[in-house]
Amino acid sequence: MTHTRTALILGATGGAGFEIARALRAHGWQIRAMHRRPDDVSSQMPDADWIQGDAMKAADVLMAATNADLIVHAVNPPGYRNWGKLVLPMIDNTIAAARANKARIVLPGTVYNYGPDAFPLLRETSPQNPTTRKGAIRVEMEARLRRAAETGVDVLVVRAGDFFGPNTGNSWFAQGMIKPGQPVRSITHPGKPGVGHAWAYLPDFAETVARLVDRNDELATFETFHFNGHWFEDGREIAERLRIAGGVPDAPIRRFPWPLLHVLKPFVPLFREMAEMQYLWKVPVRLDNSRLVSRLGSEPHTPVDEALRETLRGLKCLPDAPSRALGLAVG
Asked: Which residues form the NAD-dependent epimerase/dehydratase domain (predicted)?
């Protein structure tokens, strides 16, 4: 009898979690998703097995992970509320559940782990010396995963730049550049003119994860791969292409209101987290995917204009947009 591979998705209503679940399902995996209110969200992914539970409760995660082969840790507190206090206990719960079920953990990684000493080209071996609180927490998350791997827990980290895609919600793209649910009338660009920036189209990123875990027997106990995605030598180019994809080639491209963000950050948790990451928009930061390409032969890559159109359609910014749009995403 052929064993049906089961993947538990933590954060299935978020951008990365949803797309990874969809990619794994297309690769033949059985998808199990945990959510505090599964009846409210199960229609978003009707072919998944939904289980009620809270990622902050070790017993809930352990129960949800029963007989799972893979745990995708794509969960974060919505709106970054209490992010610093909640993120590390959640990864500890995932590690415990993976250990009990001999499952591999998949973590969508970020560039927050790095400081200026690693720029401009990030490799898997680049030093992780962040200068921000959020970056330090991400480093600690991966350190705990690495220590778990030393005692037999399999881990896969796939790192990428800023996410965009048809199911991104709480992201720079959806909250910093356009207004979901509205036609594109203007675009806000957070970066400095002439500074390069890396973007990751979520369906391509998710397909990369699915292809890697399909080759689990070839993976070491602890593996890290960098995903290049869409790189723009001048980060403003994505805004220029975005207005064309939105059918408004003359739409104004505005500067991001960083000064206002800093004024409001003591009162709005999301603004505080966004302001902390401003340094990543001041300098070029690119990911070297040579190790990934060596392993897979190529990196999944949707042409940028097509990816932007699908993103706008998913965020209901085009006339033919679908009714569904996810409200949470990975940070």
From this structure: 7-223
